[in-house]
Amino acid sequence: LYATLALGTYDTSPEALAVDHRAIAVLAGIGLPGACMLHGYVGFIFGAIKANPWWSTPLMPVIFLLCVVGAYLINYNKFDIKVMFVFGMVGLALSATDFPAAPFLLGVILGPMADSNLRRGLRLSDGSLLPMFQRPICIFFLLIIAFMIISQLGVFNYIKNKRKRS
Fold first, then answer.
1. Could you report how far apart the first and last alpha carbons of the chain are, in Å?
2. Residue 97 in 3-state DSSP?
3. Cα 142 to Cα 134: distance, rounded to the nearest angstrom
């Protein structure tokens, strides 16, 4: 068994081990990025083209079971399975109402970072929100945020339609 795994080599000298370590480093340096690119591309193609017809096949219970096992194995806690199930139902409801996933995902990812940075800023300013309104860059970003919120509420469409009628 050793001869098979060592490819017929019995040399365990420090020089041979150094050569092996260099070869492993080169192979890992080439192989890992190559594998990531290949698997990423294959996953993209598979997800975009092949996955949709498989939603109602016997593969879905296997995927569900693996998701449950993965959620449980993170902390060995049944609560994680319940959280996964609740968020799966929320995702299903959002999908049924054609809610776009990108803003939701951005909120989930960027929300904790925004919260921690807001807390840090409030700690630095002794709990005052005034520094957010004193710097020009902060005012610029607050105006952009206000513009985005107003544009999503349909205020601009209302004004445009009102001008067309008059």
1. 88
2. coil
3. 11
Please tell me the distance from the alpha carbon of residue 71 to that of residue 16, in angstroms, as a whole number: 43
Q: Tell me the whole-structure pTM to 2 decimals.
A: 0.41
The segments of the chain whose pLDDT lies below 70 read: 1, 44, 46-56, 166
Distance CA 30, CA 70 (A): 30
Q: Which residue has the tokens 């107003």?
A: 150
Alpha-carbon span 85 to 32, nearest angstrom: 33
CA-to-CA distance for 78 and 41, rounded, in angstroms? 34
CA distances from 163 to 65, 104, 153, 159 (A): 57, 34, 18, 6
pLDDT tens digits for range 75-106: 888 898 898 889 888 888 888 888 887 888 88
Contacts of 72 (CB under 8 A, 6+ apart): 78, 80, 81
